[in-house]
Every structure is written in C-alpha cells, then in structure tokens.
Design brief:
The structure holds 2 protein chains of 2 kinds. Chain A is mainly α. Chain A folds into 2 domains: 13-53; 65-295, MetI-like fold (Orthogonal Bundle), CATH 1.10.3720.10. Chain A contains 14 helices and no strands. Chain A has helices spanning 2-7, 14-53, 57-65, 67-98, 103-112, 114-117, 120-130, 137-146, 158-186, 190-198, 203-231, 235-241, 252-261, 265-295. The two termini of chain A are 33 Å apart. By secondary structure, chain B is mostly helical. Chain B folds into 2 domains: 2-58, no CATH class; 63-272, Orthogonal Bundle (MetI-like fold), CATH 1.10.3720. In chain B, 76% of the residues lie in helices and 0% in strands. Chain B has helices spanning 2-32, 36-41, 52-58, 68-98, 105-117, 120-134, 140-165, 168-176, 181-210, 213-218, 227-232, 242-262, 264-272. In chain B, helix 3 (52-58) packs across helix 12 (242-262) and helix 4 runs parallel beside helix 7. The longest helix of chain B is centred in the N-terminal third of the chain and has 31 residues, at 2-32. Classes of the chains: A mainly alpha, B mainly alpha. At the A-B interface, helix 2, helix 5, helix 6, helix 7 and helix 8 of A face helix 1, helix 2, helix 4, helix 5 and helix 6 of B.
Chain lengths: 296, 278
C-alpha cells in the first residue's frame, strides 16, 4: 500500500495498472490454455473431421435406403417423446410427494435416488435378466402367483422390448429430474400456500395458481435438457436389448455405434448429422439460457 | 383424523415408488447370492443363499472374471485421473474467465456448454476416429482425455458460477497489496473455492467410473479396460453366469454409491446451482 503511494509520483499513474493488466491478460491466457487445448484436440478436430466425412452425399443416399435407419428415426422420435413426457409428469407428481415435511419421506427420497447413484451396467443388466421370458424372475413369478404358463415375451416381442427400454430409461433418470423439481418446489414461498388455504383454495387450485406458475420455467428448461440427453441415451437400449430383436429397436444413439462397428463409419456420421437440425436449435437455446443464468 | 388420512395417502404413494425403485436392485442382490439353479428358476428369494459367487469373483475363478481386480484397479485409476485432471483444467479456466475476465473467455464457455449439451453418444464416433488418428486407440490416455473433455464443460460452468459469488473486493484488496494473478489464484481463490471443487472432483470421478460407451469404444484389450467393460463381456453369451455378473456388479456399484451418499449434502447443493448430466 505504502509502496504504491510512494512510487506514484515517480512513475506515470498508469504504469502500475498497465503492468497489472498485462499480468492479468497473460495469466488469463495461460490458465485458459489447458481447456482450450482439450477442447481443440477432443472436440474441434473430431467434429471437423466428422463434418468432412459427412460431406459425402452418397452416405445419405445409402442411409435413407436402409430400412433399419427409417425404423430407427421413428423409434427415436417415439422414444424421446414418450420417455421425456412420461418422466416429467411422474417427476412433477412425485416432487409434490417428496416436499412433504416428514422424516420418513426424506428417507424414502434417499432410497429413491439409488438408480441415479449407481452405475448403469449392473442395474440395466439386472433388468435384462429379470425380464428374460423363460428364466427371468418376472415371468416365473407370474406363473407362480397367477398360473400364467407363457408370460409376455418382454424382450423378444419388438413392441414390448421397446417399451421396456423406455421403462429402463425412466427408471434411471427419474430420480435426477424429480430432485430438480423438488428443489424448484422448495424455492416457492410457503406463505403463498398458507394464504391460499385460508382463502379456501383446493389442492388443485393451489397447484394450478401457485405451484405451476413458479415451476413452469424450470419445467420447460429441464424438459428440453432431458430431451437432448434422452436422444443420446445409449445404455438403456444397448444394454437391455442391444437394439433387438432383429435390429427393430435401435435409436439413433445405438444405430450410429452399430454402423461404426460394422465398418460403415460414413453411415454412422451421417446418421448423427441427420439428427443435428433437431438438436442444434435446442442446444443453442439452452446455451443462451444457461450462460444467462451464469451471470445472475 | 385428517392427519391419519394424509399420512395414509403419503404411504400409498411411497409403496409403489419404493417397489419400482428397488425391484431391480433387489433382483441384482438376490442373483448375487443365488446358485445357478435358483437363478434360473426366477425365485423371489434363493433356496439356499450363498456367498460362493463373491468367493469366485474375489478369486477370479471364472473365464469372464480373470482380470477382475486389474479391471477394478483400472476403473479406480481412470476415475481418479479424470477427476484430478478435470479439476485442474476447469478450476484454471473458471478463474481465468470469472476473475481475470480473459478476452474470449465468455465465448469459450459457451462453446464448452454446447459440448456439454450435445449427447455424448453422438460425440463418441468422431472422437473414436480422432483417437485413431492420434494413435491413442486402446490406451487409457484416450479414455481419460475423452472423459476430461466430457466432464470439463459442466465443471467450468459450475465453478464459474461459484466464482461469481465471491466478493469482487477480495481481488481488489489483494491487487492493491501488490498480489500477482498467480498469488491471487493460490492464496485467495483456491481456499475459497474448495467446497465447489470437491463437488466437481466427485462429479468427474463418478462420470468416469460409471462410463460404459466410451470405455468400450476406446479400449479393447482385456487388461486395459475398466470394470464396466469387463462386466459388459457377459453380454456376449446368452447363457452367461448372471449370478457371478451380479456379484461382481454389486462390488462395482458400491464405491460410487458410498461416495455419493457420503457427499450427498454437497452434491445436492451443487445440483441446485445447475444440473448434473444424468
């Protein structure tokens, strides 16, 4: 402090600050460099390379001629639409349950988080074994309790297998989004509800006029984020059914990998690029929203 | 009376929620203590529960499990390396962006966020290809780098938000005292950021520990793969010894569950500031 004041008359007033500014600019660049390097090596180059391969129009012709691809596009749309909406309706309802002020409800929440806290491999494979039509626990129990000799072919019937993938996806990601909506609900001022119940508002009216308006933004943002990530859910489909039976149940995330492993890299890349017009607007919108949130 | 009705309504919700949540986990546990026969009979509870499966896993006495401990170690190593490198990369970046206001920092963060939002399964293919070009395929370096690239964007975003909450006056006071940027980072910034850094380190660690797709694409040698891929090998046979898989899977699931519950308070607090990739 004293040093600066003493030196001030000798040096031009801006020298100290400009030295400081230079120091900041230098260290700013140095400290940002590791991430920029990672980004360049792991994202920019691969994506540029992918786009370059994706310029080959021939690949798209072959892609659209592949019946599995067309089926996959349809699957993906249904998967995302059903899984996300169902998941959020359940999450919205359950978040109302989990804000109840009870010690035991908090304990239930701790257990409820488990699917999200443990890795996918053992749990999804557990579903897979459990749903095995011949030896799985589900059909064995159906036989034991209800005498159903030939239980549903959970993973061998194409439609059922597809629905099971959706179920597994919801099982895995429901806790996370419920937790997000719980924190959203907890942020709502409690006296609003007290005032409303003094005025004789019903549960539904309280939800309609207090809860929903406060949660709407969070709900929409979360839904959109979840849509993007559901689109990329590889595990729920691959680990449960492998995209089967008969490659009928692929989604874009698993089909791209399948193409790649079958030495059709160009088709894999093309199948991703085809999805971009759908993803990029959402990504753009979310980046704007999240980076605005970062300023607040 | 109303209280009892309210309570029973809550219980009526809790029961199906718990059944739904715990059934696959219960099933996992039951298989892990079942012998081959009870497993194939689909029993709710095995006839004679046994710990033999765990014994076989521990002693690596099955073809699929020959490298169990090595793969467990690989998982630890990859997760730890990812956690530490991500922490280093992201903390430096967040400091440069939020406190030093480096030029272009804002755009870099937005680009990073875009990476975070694009589904990882879609980035996997070009990343796999690039790893081939770099000659890194089938090395753990490839997987660690990929996981750092996937974990950093969210890490930077969370750390930047936390940095913005630190009072500006701290920096100003330190600069007045003649602190250089590096001193500011070491003496002021790092100590204050510790709580957020713990959350982010754990986030990256768990992300890498749980990852399957990238591990299975980038690594192929049985000695190099983490446990996730080792367990995935069971998928190659229809009559796989699922009870052994579940015993090994249970051991694989325990570390993240323990870490998660140990740091639950911090993790949930970190969550509310944004959203962790599920």
């Amino acid at each position: 402090m004293t040093a600066t004041t003493m030196a001030a008359p000798l040096a031009p007033p801006s020298a100290a600050t400009s030295g400081h500014t230079r120091d900041r600019a230098l260290w700013g660049a140095v400290m940002l460099a590791p991430y920029v390097l990672v980004f360049a090596v792991m994202v920019v180059y691969p994506v540029a390379y992918g786009l370059w391969i994706g310029l080959d129009l021939n690949a798209y012709r072959r892609l659209f001629a592949d019946p599995i691809f067309l089926r996959t596009v349809l699957n993906t749309i249904i998967f995302v639409f059903v899984a996300v909406n169902l998941k959020f309706l359940i999450a919205l309802a359950l978040s109302g349950f989990f804000v109840a002020q009870r010690a035991w409800v908090r304990f239930v929440l701790v257990l409820f988080i488990l699917p999200w806290a443990v890795p996918s491999i053992p749990t999804i494979l557990s579903f897979r074994v459990m749903l095995n039509p011949e030896t799985g626990m589900v059909n064995s129990q159906l036989f034991q309790w209800f005498g159903i000799v030939e239980g549903p072919g959970w993973l061998t019937d194409p439609t059922l297998a597809f629905l099971c993938s959706i179920m597994v996806h919801i099982w895995k990601s429901l806790p996370f989004w419920t937790l997000i909506l719980v924190t959203g609900r907890l942020a709502i001022a409690q006296d609003l509800y007290e005032a409303a119940s003094v005025d004789g508002a019903s549960r539904w009216q309280q939800f309609r006029f207090i809860t929903w308006p406060s949660l709407a933004t969070l709900y929409v943002t979360s839904t959109m984020l979840s849509m993007i990530w559901t689109l990329g859910d590889f595990n729920s489909v691959y680990l449960l059914t492998g995209g089967g039976p008969g490659d009928l149940n692929h989604v874009l995330a698993t089909l791209g990998i399948r193409y790649m492993r079958n030495n059709a890299l160009d088709l894999g890349i093309a199948s991703i690029i085809v999805a971009m017009p759908l993803i990029l607007p959402m990504v753009y919108f979310m980046v704007k929203r999240l980076s605005k949130g970062a300023d607040a | 009376m109303k209280k009892i009705i309210d309570e029973s309504k809550l219980i009526l919700i809790a029961i199906p929620v718990l059944l739904w949540t715990l059934l696959p986990i219960y099933h996992l546990f039951v298989l892990s203590i079942s012998n081959q026969e009870s497993m194939l009979a689909g029993k709710l509870w095995p006839d004679d529960p046994t710990l033999q499966n765990f014994q076989i896993v521990f002693k690596q006495q099955h073809y699929y499990l020959t490298n169990f401990w090595l793969q467990m170690f690989n998982s630890f190593f990859i997760a730890l390396a990812t956690g530490l490198i991500t922490l280093f990369v992201a903390t430096c970046a967040a400091f440069a962006i939020a406190r030093l206001h480096v030029r272009g920092g804002r755009s870099i963060m937005n680009l990073a966020l875009a990476t975070y939002l694009i589904p990882a399964a879609f980035l996997a293919i070009p990343m796999y290809k690039a790893m081939g070009t770099y000659g890194l395929l089938n090395t753990q370096t490839a997987l660690i780098l990929a996981m750092v690239a996937l974990a950093s964007p969210y890490a930077i975003w969370v750390l930047k938000q936390a940095s913005d909450k630190l009072p500006k006056e701290l920096d100003e006071a330190a600069v007045m005292d003649g602190a250089t940027s590096l001193q500011l980072f070491r003496l002021v910034y790092l100590p204050l950021m510790k709580p957020s850094m713990v959350v982010i380190g754990i986030y990256a660690l768990l992300l890498a520990w749980n990852e399957y797709l990238y591990a299975f694409l980038l690594l192929s040698s049985e000695k190099a793969v983490p446990l996730a891929v080792g367990l995935g090998l069971f998928l190659s046979a229809d009559d796989a010894p699922w009870n052994l898989l579940m015993a090994a899977g249970l051991l694989y699931a325990i570390p993240p569950a323990v870490i998660y519950y140990g740091f639950r308070k911090n993790m949930v607090a970190g969550l509310t500031s944004g959203s962790v990739k599920s």
